[in-house]
Amino acid sequence: MSLPSLLDLSPALHGLAERAEPSVLQALGGAQALADWPAQRREQLPRLLACSDFVHQQILRAPADFLALAASGELERPLGPGELREALQQALQDCADEDTLARQLRRFRNRQQLRIIWRDISRQASLQQTCLELSALADACVDQAYAWLYRQHCAQFGTPIGRRSGEPQHLVILGMGKLGAFELNLSSDIDLIFGYPEGGETQGARRAQDNQEFFTRLGQKLIKALDAITVDGFVFRVDMRLRPYGDSGALVLSFNALEQYYQDQGRDWERYAMIKARVIGGDQQAGRQLLEMLRPFVYRRYLDFSAIEALRAMKQLIQQEVRRKGMSENIKLGAGGIREVEFIAQAFQLIHGGRDLSLQQRSLLKVLDTLDGQGYLPGEVVNELREGYHFLRYTEHALQGIADRQTQMLPEDPQEQARVAQIMGFADWAAFHAELMRWRARVDHHFRRVIADPDEDVDAEQETPGGEWLPLWSEALDSAAAEEQLAEAGLQNPAQAYKRLLDLRHGGQVRAMQRLGRERLDAFMPRLLAQAVSQPDPDLVLERVMPLVEKVARRSAYLVLLSENPGALQRLLSLCAASPWIAEQIARFPLLLDELLNEGRLFSPPQGEELVAELRERLMRIPEDDLEQQMEALRHFKLAHRLRVAASEIAGSLPLMKVSDYLTWLAEAILQQVLQLAWRQLTSKHGVPRRSDGSLCDGDFIIVGYGKVGGIELGHGSDLDLVFIHDADPQAETDGAKPLDGAQFFARMGQRIIHMLNTLTTSGPLYEVDMRLRPSGESGLLVSSLSAFARYQQQEAWTWEHQALVRARVLVGCPRVAAGFAAIRAEVLGRARDLDQLRREVSEMRGKMRDNLGTRATQAGLGELAEDPAQRFNLKQDAGGIVDIEFMVQYAALAWSHEHPQLLRYTDNIRILDGLREAALLSAEDVTALQEIYKAYRATAHRLALQKQAGEVSADQLLAERRKVRHIWQALGLN
């Protein structure tokens, strides 16, 4: 595609050029300095100044560099292979220290970035040339910085030697994404993965260092050399989140460890990412060996139908991103954007690349050529995709060339719009935007056709689904006829149902809809009615689903989703009929409708490790400094998976114990990411805290879960009882630019974690957090040191706090500190105790709870086991209920764990009861009874929660269970 040539400056930009020219001419030494310039370059200067703040500022900052570029003719010609690398090598020759290295890298980058933006905006470079030179610039900066740092590290720490080969080792630096494919954009970050061939130690220094430690330190230095922002700016923003395990994984891994990870745990999205992997720095030969080792992971040798299903899941993820706030104006992620073109190409690569080697290439445009040449796609489709991709990428460069800023969002400011239109060669924004939308529509059309599910095809000759309900919805029937049709369809209260439909039709939300939205609603409502009347209780279905319809009426994309996916609509109605809690959740958060698209996924929640990987993948797509988007992503992830668990529980595919497992795993996956986000944010600002021996902390922080989350018994609406513990020197300062002492650092970290969990956003809070179980409760420090926690538990804690400790376990955090916590817990709980005193204290605490939290019948002293059906039995707090069982288990653990330490191995009641049976401390009959009663109580509580009812039943229910619990309670000597 050839863009229109640059037009004369639009009136909106004349003023910008006129204001910029005097200062630039002065910086360059006056108009005479430009006298020898070719006429074309002189004409281009005011256009570039008007269109790009970066060009303007860079000329003022380094006029000599700009004049040198002009004198060399580099503004008018592409650089040949190796020229950038050679130039940078010379610039770094005399670097004496890391500060000089950083300064030279940044100045070199800024000079070349100015040249590349100049050539791109003036259309002296093609899209391919611009992307190639940007990628070559990144390659040179990464590799030359690595080479300089490697020499310095070897001089300081010795040369890393392979244990098997006995040869010196080098880092292998993989460039991923657009960098790997030589498709880098004007202001892109670079995705890297670090590896090294084999383990071993350094030689030539006083103290040998493990190869992984050597390369980890070197990798950290390299990232800092490229990524840190100084007075000279930055070289490239570096993103390491594509490495195995993401932020929680090691920065550098050996080839064996990389191969093992991808073989055992590699996900489909990692196959997707690895398609473009390329060695950009370090040991090129070893890097080629590594990519060959990983090739079987990326390209399967057969047509893998599981990959096709995974691609459809990826499609849904993309569609979810499109609907996120603001995404429609994002030319990368929005509908018809750059990502959709990339996805089309890489979909064919993933499915067919193992058998068709011609698809095993990194360049998207070359893959499109192959799709055409090999008949995967019609030539006219490929041509449209190619031209659309060119237009979108030129637009991306226009957006980023203005201020050298990483953005793909269309501007709202009229001046910025005028600049983009000017760069793209259009007379005004309206003309450019119309052309952009035309290309996006064509790309989106092809994207939908390529990735569509076969069962999404519709026979045009079929009668419109729900057509028999169209007259009723459109008010072509009078009220009597409409109510008669509803009654004949099985509704018990047709008048009320018809009124509900009319209230929607004439309500404010619908009246305010635009024409397209109203057409979508008119197409959807007959489908809804047709499916609703097929439900066992259509009155109830309509009552529960109509608030959702009203909520999404003006966001009609959701109506299209349900209209075009009858299976999703059927699942929506079934779930709403089964649970008002689910109906309310979907009405409050309509994004959850996406989860209904895939029945298999909806009713098959992922395992714990899969949850962690999926959440990490979602967060990888969000800029590290965008806390608001990260918090929204965490909340949507929680809402979506909580819905899947509830749906599976209702469908009977997930038993009670598994429900709690999944909800607990979900909380742990979220806490892990929240902890990493908080740590990254604080260390980037204040540096890393120190341990008592002066060494830097490697996390040294844990989140301990008590209560339901500690006991792996979370319910659908459970809050989190948490305690924060660190093991750093509370007085030593962090090593950053704005140092804090350790106590302040971790207090702020605790506050940051609670903020991320508690803050009410448009998607609600993540979790309600209760910190009252920390040492000294609400009057105590938010975060305790490990030693202070030990002292408190050993010397000050009450018996009820030790009871709570029975159900406490580390959820996420540093393994070393977690081991310290486990040792303290075992020591505190494993003491020999005075059993009479213990029984008295446990009984007194239970009595206070029952009096304060039980039903009115209990509080009024009407008997421990009220049996009057007019009274209520609180499943949790009343005599014979859940808390009685929990207190018995806690009493037993405190009473006997000094002789039977296996009672402390687990924190959940069911497995502690197993331990009591194995140790013959309770009879097998009593243990089985307590376990079954406990599960029955919890199952009842779960069902009531899904029905939005309080955790109470009639007092004449569960009598045998309550009597059995009280009998065992009394047999233990409790009262």
UniProtKB/TrEMBL annotation:
Cofactors, names only: Mg(2+)
Cited CDD domains: NT_GlnE_GlnD_like
Sequence ranges assigned to domain PII-uridylyltransferase/Glutamine-synthetase adenylyltransferase in this UniProt record: 312-450, 872-974
Gene3D superfamilies associated with the record: 1.20.120.1510, Beta Polymerase, domain 2, Nucleotidyltransferases domain 2
One of the Pfam families matching this protein, by short name: GlnE
Keyword Cell division: no
Keyword Transferase on entry: yes
Alphabetically ordered keywords of this record: ATP-binding, Magnesium, Multifunctional enzyme, Nucleotide-binding, Nucleotidyltransferase, Transferase
E.C. code: 2.7.7.89, 2.7.7.42
Region listing for Adenylyl transferase, in residue ranges: 465-975
Chemical reaction(s) catalysed: [glutamine synthetase]-L-tyrosine + ATP = [glutamine synthetase]-O(4)-(5'-adenylyl)-L-tyrosine + diphosphate; [glutamine synthetase]-O(4)-(5'-adenylyl)-L-tyrosine + phosphate = [glutamine synthetase]-L-tyrosine + ADP
Segments for region (Adenylyl removase): 1-455
N-terminal signal peptide: none
Domain called Glutamate-ammonia ligase adenylyltransferase repeated: residue spans: 43-292, 569-822
Family, as annotated: Belongs to the GlnE family.
Chain's role: Involved in the regulation of glutamine synthetase GlnA, a key enzyme in the process to assimilate ammonia. When cellular nitrogen levels are high, the C-terminal adenylyl transferase (AT) inactivates GlnA by covalent transfer of an adenylyl group from ATP to specific tyrosine residue of GlnA, thus reducing its activity. Conversely, when nitrogen levels are low, the N-terminal adenylyl removase (AR) activates GlnA by removing the adenylyl group by phosphorolysis, increasing its activity.
PANTHER family noted in UniProt: BIFUNCTIONAL GLUTAMINE SYNTHETASE ADENYLYLTRANSFERASE_ADENYLYL-REMOVING ENZYME, GLUTAMINE SYNTHETASE ADENYLYLTRANSFERASE
HAMAP family found in the cross-reference section: GlnE
Protein name (record): Bifunctional glutamine synthetase adenylyltransferase/adenylyl-removing enzyme
Organism, scientific name: Pseudomonas fluvialis
Lineage: Bacteria, Pseudomonadati, Pseudomonadota, Gammaproteobacteria, Pseudomonadales
Gene name, Swiss-Prot/TrEMBL: glnE
